Amino acid sequence: MDLESHKNTQVLILDFGSQYTHLITRRIRKLSVFSLCISGTSSLEAIAEHNSRVIILSGGPHSVHLDGAPWLPRGFFEYVEENGVFVLGICYGLQLIVEMLGGEVKAAKSSEYGRMNIGTYEGSVLFDKAMEQQVWMSHGDEVIRLPEGFSVIGRSKRNSIDSLKKNEMGTLNQNGVDCLHENTIAAIENPSKRIFGLQYHPEVTHSPKGMETLQYFLFEVCKVTADWELKDVLIDEIKTVNNEVGPEDHVICALSGGVDSTVAATIVHEAIGDRLHCVFVDNGLLRFQEKEHVMSTFQADLHLSVTCVDATDRFLSKLKGVVEPEMKRKIIGKEFISIFDDFAHELEQKLGRKPTFLVQGTLYPDVIESCPPPGSGRTHSHTIKSHHNVGGLPKDMKLKLIEPLKLLFKDEVRELGGILHVPQGFLKRHPFPGPGLAVRVIGDVTEGNVLDTLRQVDHIFVEAIKQAGIYDSIWQAFAVFPNIRTVGVQGDQRTHSHVVALRAITSEDGMTADWYNFDPKFLQYVSSKICNEVQGVNRVVYDITSKPPSTVEWE
Ligand SMILES: Nc1ncnc2c1ncn2[C@@H]1O[C@H](COP(=O)(O)OP(=O)(O)OP(=O)(O)O)[C@@H](O)[C@H]1O
């Protein structure tokens, strides 16, 4: 499956920069319908290439009536009409439809943010019945005049709409004015043109009936078929790898022990067997017994051929005395590259030929990230290569990339891993940063035995979480070594020892996060276990900051 050559995207999402755009794509795939997301200002050719049955216009931060707002390409509405494509505009997408087709959108007197109630009308195509429902709104503009041929099919219930008559759709349509402006237009449709719009976000869980509406729209209104399965991706990818990699070619892959590189390598291994050569680097910044655990899974469960490079001294000697976080990251990235380079050269000696391909666990959000939506202020500088490979690839390696996961989201990769029999414990592992514990020790990582102390604390914390049966409800849990000493009293003795911090967060996608609300008894247990068992620690604190304003990692 290839982004450029995928010609049968049943649902194409045009991204106008909403934070929820990825969610729309994911929710639709969960309904077994293949969907892709491309920039909202893509050319008409790029849109038409997908042959989509349905096009969804996402929300976005812009105002359609202001200069510089992203618009659909010229000829878009003619194209969808001629080709029988269904269109659904969400939030900004709805406003764009209205503005481009001759209606009017204005800054609202009062914005609608958060939960609201709306009422939908009987007799519409998009809603099968009249009902009241709670939805999630996030807009400062509102539609005040509809284009010709459109009807209002739902309104927010700021004022009571019980008194609204059924024929209001017609009234508004004929007069072209909204006489009931106190109740903002929440949904519109023009069934004969196959164009629909929702002012709210059906894709978020705060719109509890939103999925039902999307489902109804796709299956009942657009008659889309639910025929996409994740295992199709596997079959396609194995085929693609076999087509691309010649029978004599060799492929390398750097494995981190994380889900992405492991699943990517397993797919390639299915395709070409032992012509895949993996390398796992112990940079001295791994967690408690991580190397042993990861290597045994690679070999015993996945039968991958993995070379383990013990580079602890190489990394730690370069990190001696370094306290600046960005500097640490740069040093680690550079060292990784030099090790991958050595690995490729050694392999060349052994095989008598250069490896020609490199497997990377690039995910779909990385791809979308590298083509940011219009007006996002982000540029294309964030290339997939430098994003995904710790610090970038050695320039002279000239390897061609294999990215079998580049159209998938993290939860889909986990599911695919399950199909490939990657052990569940591995697939559900919390994310771990490439620079490892170096970004969890504030200051010099080589001082005293800070790394060992941190490993012990982290292990106690994470094991306790596993024993409490809550590991899978937490996105990421770990310990931090802030490098601060405080006064304590242990066994009648005054101590001047270290503080350690614990962090546990919940998140949908890592972009935003909330701290995990543990039972106080759990925290009490973990705190005393750490102070009793880990030498040099006399205080434990728990990080109660969300992202934003904090990041997940401390450095
Ligand atoms: N210790 C390591 N040994 C070998 N390769 C590594 C190591 N750490 C990271 N890498 C490589 O760098 C890539 C990016 O690392 P990063 O920590 O950002 O992972 P990621 O994007 O979460 O992916 P993964 O789930 O594979 O860890 C990994 O996919 C892997 O190819």
Topology:
Elements lengths: L10 E5 L5 H10 L4 E5 L4 H5 L5 E4 L18 H8 L2 E5 L1 H9 L3 E17 L10 E15 L5 E6 L11 H8 L9 E6 L4 E4 L11 H12 L8 H15 L6 E4 L4 H14 L3 E7 L7 H12 L4 E5 L1 H8 L5 H27 L5 E3 L4 H6 L14 H5 L11 E3 L7 H10 L4 H4 L22 H18 L8 E5 L4 E6 L2 E14 L7 E2 L4 H14 L3 E6 L13
Parallel strand pairs: 1-2, 1-3, 3-4, 4-9, 10-11, 10-13, 11-12, 13-14, 17-19
Antiparallel strand pairs: 5-6, 5-7, 7-8, 8-9, 15-17, 16-17, 17-18
Helix pairs in contact: 7-8, 8-14, 10-11, 16-17
The structure holds adenosine-5'-triphosphate (ATP).
Description of the structure:
The protein is of the alpha/beta class and 555 residues long. The chain has three domains: 11-221, Class I glutamine amidotransferase (GATase) domain (Rossmann fold, 3-Layer(aba) Sandwich); 230-427, Rossmann fold; 440-542, GMP Synthetase, Chain A, domain 3. The protein is 33% helix and 22% strand. The protein contains 17 helices and 19 strands. It has helices at residues 21-30, 44-48, 76-83, 92-100, 168-175, 210-221, 230-244, 259-272, 290-301, 312-319, 325-351, 364-369, 384-388, 410-419, 424-427, 450-467, 520-533; strands spanning 11-15, 35-39, 54-57, 86-90, 104-120, 131-145, 151-156, 185-190, 195-198, 251-254, 276-282, 306-310, 357-359, 400-402, 476-480, 485-490, 493-506, 514-515, 537-542. The strands form three sheets. The chain has a nine-stranded mixed β-sheet with strand order 2-1-3-4-9-8-7-5-6, sandwiched between helices. Helix 1 (21-30) links the parallel strand 1 (11-15) and strand 2 (35-39). Helix 16 (450-467) runs antiparallel to helix 17 (520-533). It is globular. Adenosine-5'-triphosphate is lined by residues 254-256, 258-261, 279-281, 283, 361, 388-390, 431, 433-434. Adenosine-5'-triphosphate (ATP) binds at residues 254-256, 258-261, 279-281, 283, 361, 388-390, 431, 433-434.
